[in-house]
Design brief:
By secondary structure, the chain is of the alpha/beta class. Among the domains are: 140 residues, no CATH class; 121 residues, no CATH class. The chain has 15 helices and 13 strands. The strands form 4 sheets. Strands 1-4-7-10 form a 4-stranded parallel sheet. A 4-stranded antiparallel sheet has the order 6-5-8-9, with no helix packed on it. It has a 3-stranded parallel sheet with strand order 11-12-13. Helix 2 packs antiparallel against helix 3 and helix 4 crosses helix 5. It is globular, with a radius of gyration of 21 Å. The C terminus is likely disordered.
């Protein structure tokens, strides 16, 4: 699920860590053992506020919009009433107004900070973060009118609220393949980046013009000089308060598709990375965090990638949209899902409302899997698909909240900016209604009936 999309009636226009805590508690009672989140990386404290969780200023530190202001120790309702009332009004619109959310939350947080700038535990948290936290705070203070200590204080409370949510259910953190060119990580690792290059993906069946992600690549020949810190830093942060770590575009440990400045994705080329060293570091951090690893091994992946990941003990990905076989024959050491945040929903494909018409052939996969007639409502199709996944071989099954609620739009359409509301659509109903909604509860029941309910996901972290 996308945390920003998961709003309650108490949300300030965007789903936050208190919403996650409530949703996690409900999910656990319904039988789930894990919740996979979008990346929670910090964004630049500037306007327009960047909505994409895969285009963050930092992969180490976290996004201020996910704080629940009222849950901060010392917050007084009377002091933040004006900001809270204005923010609650944003929930009436499904399209998230990040600029307004950021403006109202930071204004309220500034008031709470001035009332209680040194909460209990702050000093020990600061000590645990080393020099990176102070550098991050100074970086933000240069772009924001408020002092560096305020940004340190924000990160402390984000860490505390994420820890509280993680006590309700096992969280799976997502590690993006890169970071924004104008953010903290790019500034911090500037000496180790490849100039005038961007990363992306070559043309394939789903994205025939290729993809240009606009992210600066780390120079693989300089990683040793950096003592591998850009990679370790991101993975270690993801392992904090997490039961699992998902590596977005795990092929990036082996090779990345570079696009030179002034060229398109069709004109890019692959550049090799020191996979053996990176896998060893990943294994070390997995054990350090006691967290299992999921590698997003999708798209144009060389067989050697999956072989080496399997040897290390990483779970692979298997998607309905990509696989030609039945879930009963998929690998055991895998995560089964219907799609990802970049791929169509069941409702979008079944009703042909998916805007990318070249993907409408995917409807045949749903028919082959469920044998349902054309007039079947899309939610019934989604339930039938997840019933098949529930009885498949993979250790884990991930259920998309968009599918469970019959949402037609996908969170992101890669390669587009103005045409679609990427990363800005909230779920159509708040958590209070999700908890009693037909789709999520029916899917939870069929997962329980298939013996997939409760407990750990049977993925020993020590094997990686």
């Amino acid at each position: 699920m996308q945390l920003y999309a998961l709003r309650s009636r108490e949300s300030w226009g965007v789903g936050d860590l208190a919403d996650l805590r409530r949703f996690a508690r409900w999910s656990r009672k319904a039988g789930a053992s894990t919740v996979l989140l979008n990346p929670l990386g910090a964004q630049n404290p500037t306007f327009p506020y960047q909505p994409s969780p895969y285009f963050a200023s930092s992969r180490r530190f976290r996004n201020v919009v996910y704080l629940r202001v009222e849950d901060i120790e010392g917050a007084r309702s009377a002091d933040i009433a004006a900001e809270r009332d204005a923010a609650l009004g944003l929930n009436a619109e499904r399209l998230i107004d990040y600029d307004r959310v950021f403006e109202l939350k930071t204004a309220a947080l500034w008031k709470v900070y001035n009332a209680r700038p040194t909460p209990r535990g702050l000093a020990s948290y600061v000590a645990s973060q080393g020099t990176a936290l102070r550098e991050f705070a100074d970086f933000n203070a240069e772009r924001d009118a408020r002092p560096a200590d305020f940004h340190v204080w924000i990160q402390f409370h984000l860490d505390r609220q994420l820890a509280r949510a993680s006590r309700e259910i096992g969280l799976i953190s997502d590690v993006p393949v890169g970071f924004a060119a104008d953010g903290f990580d790019a500034w911090r690792w500037r000496d180790y980046l490849a100039p005038r290059m961007r990363i992306g993906a070559p043309p394939d069946e789903f994205f025939r013009d290729g993809q240009d992600w606009g992210l600066p690549p780390i120079n693989p020949w300089k990683l040793h000089d950096a003592r591998w810190a850009p990679f370790v830093d991101a993975v270690r942060s993801a392992g904090s308060h997490a039961a699992g770590i998902r590596l977005d575009h795990v092929m990036g440990l082996f090779r990345l598709f570079w696009i030179p400045q002034g060229m398109t994705a069709v004109q890019g080329a692959y550049v090799r990375y020191p996979a053996r060293v990176l896998l060893s570091l990943l294994a070390r951090e997995s054990r350090r965090a006691d967290a299992f690893v999921i590698g997003e091994d999708l798209g144009l992946v060389e067989p050697v990638v999956r072989r080496q990941l399997k040897k290390k003990g990483s779970l692979s990905y298997r998607l309905v949209w990509f696989e030609s076989s039945q879930p009963e024959s998929w690998p055991r050491d895998a995560v089964a899902a219907l799609g990802t945040h970049d791929l169509p929903t069941v409702a979008g494909i079944w009703t042909r409302s998916e805007p990318e018409h070249r993907l409408h052939h995917l409807r045949d996969k749903l028919v082959q899997l469920t044998h349902l007639p054309d007039e079947t409502p899309p939610l019934e199709v989604a339930v039938a698909v997840y019933a098949k996944l529930a009885h498949g071989r993979p250790r884990m099954v991930l259920v998309s909240m968009e599918d469970a609620l019959g949402v037609h739009e996908r969170p992101n359409v890669p390669g587009t900016t103005d045409q679609f509301p990427n990363w800005r659509l909230a779920l159509p109903v708040p958590i209070e209604e999700i908890e009693t909604s037909d789709g999520p509860n029916r899917i939870a029941r069929l997962m329980r009936a298939a013996g997939r309910a409760q407990g750990a996901p049977n993925t020993p972290a020590s094997t990686i």
